[in-house]
Amino acid sequence: MKQFLLKISIIAIVSFVMIILIDIAILRKVDNLSYYSHERNFSLAYYRLKALKDSNKIVIIGGSSGAFGFNSRMIHEAFNLPVVNTCTHASIGLRMQFETFKDMLRDGDIVILSPEYGGGKERLYGGYNLLRILSTHLPEGYRKITLRQWLYIYKFIGLHNLGTSRHKDVEEYDDVYSANAINEFGDIEWEREHKDSIDNYTLSGVMDEELIDYFKYIRDYTKSKGIKLVFLPPTFMKSNFKSCADQIDSLAYCLETNGVPWQSSPSNYSFEDSLYFDTPYHMTPEGADIRTKAIIEDLHRLLNDKE
């Protein structure tokens, strides 16, 4: 009986090690579609911030709504500070969006935090796109992933393997989603017009407790480091905003009661449908300019607030 249990244990250990080695090999694979896409901005932002580590700056953190919805040049001209737009993809997850860059922030920096709506685990820990972006653009980012986060995102390793196979023949391309669309600040700077048919998103009004705790962590971390945190709601297409008003109100109430409120009303960042490109989050250049003007007004108000 002892020999049998020993054999089972050895087989289990060997199988576990083999699975880990296979997973590591998969995570070392580069996804060509991601390599040539705007997702490259995640690593570009990392190295921009590294170069500015000892300088004061404005850092924008969020998903692709920030990539398509900011005119960082306008913010730079308004405040005479370097601006780094790190926004790439919501599926990177809030935790990695902040953990990747927080060590390069310093006293006196301004962080504009504006993640997309949503309150589930994926909004915190990320999904398949996190794996393909880290594997392709910033492998050292894997060091930031906790065991708890691995337990959530492990299920996406197979999707990453499938994606690398499907995209193996992808070559460099030019369009609004390509790496060539990224400007020196990290914005998507590519001509794009409103598409008449944009599918509305559904939202949940329930926010995960771990996500709430991480918002609190960001609040406390930035305060302890002398960093000014500006927490703003994302941009969201007006017709979709109206259909999800109850859910957005619920998210706002949850943040407010937990001491991490948005510092501007969500309705202030909901604009006419014609100012959106292809999703309720992705704006046209004109839309990005209008949103940025609103952000600059909020920045002036909040940065002059001594509280």
The H-and-E topology, N to C, reads as: HHHEHHEHEHHHHHEEHHEH
Shape: globular
What are the segments in which pLDDT stays under 50 over at least 5 consecutive residues?
Answer: none
Structural class: alpha/beta
Sheet with most strands: strand arrangement: 2-1-3-4
Radius of gyration using CA atoms only = 21 Å
CATH-level-2 architecture: 3-Layer(aba) Sandwich
- Total helical segments: 14
Distance between the termini: 70 Å
Provide the domain count.
1
Proportion in β-strands: 5-15%
Q: Biggest sheet, open or closed, and with what strands and sense?
A: 4 strands, parallel
What is the CATH topology classification name? Answer: Rossmann fold
The overall pLDDT, averaged over residues, is 95
Helical content band: 40-55%
Strand runs, count: 6
As an assembly, this protein is single chain
